[in-house]
Amino acid sequence: MTVRLEDIPICDRVLVVEDVAPLRDIWRRALKEMGLFCVGVRTGEEALEHARRYEFGVAMLDLNLPGIQGLDLFEQLRELRPETAIIVVTGYGTLEAAQRAIRLGVVEFLTKPCGLGELEVAIDRARRRFLNESHPPTPEPRVEAPAPATDHSATTMTEVERRAILEALERNDGNRTATAKELGISIRTLYYRLAEYQREGFLS
Question: How far is CA 144 from CA 104, 168, 172, in A?
């Protein structure tokens, strides 16, 4: 029996945009084993074509793509399907790319090569983001940000992003509204990120 995309719950649909065929196939098989329905494409243009026809709960985007580059594709997908939770996959990371991805509302960064365990955690987080998108978190009491790390040799986009947010929070004396404004992100996105950092022990 052939499974149609239309019959799959949106939260279980994943759009993978990766131009390296073997890696794309590995991710497709891994996502299938997680019980998800995956559509894999090579270019940003193909991704946009699929996104115009169907809704996806999660999209995984490689930053280095032929044609439309990853962050430009991210921006177009955000305009086209603002509810889709997006994971960025990259073999490198820069502060500029991290800041732009934060503003666009990235859920997670995965650095190549990533383990299947990391992929599963990121997909679970993205699906929860998609499912909870219409239920913003209850505002939490102000928390004091720890002193920002002085080591500026972050090796992953996740670390670059976390450092940018925590340093902005420190500059604004823990004021979340001012921090979100400085970063150019929604207060909801900031609350979501800070809740993650508290669970991971980066905030007390």
Answer: 25, 12, 10
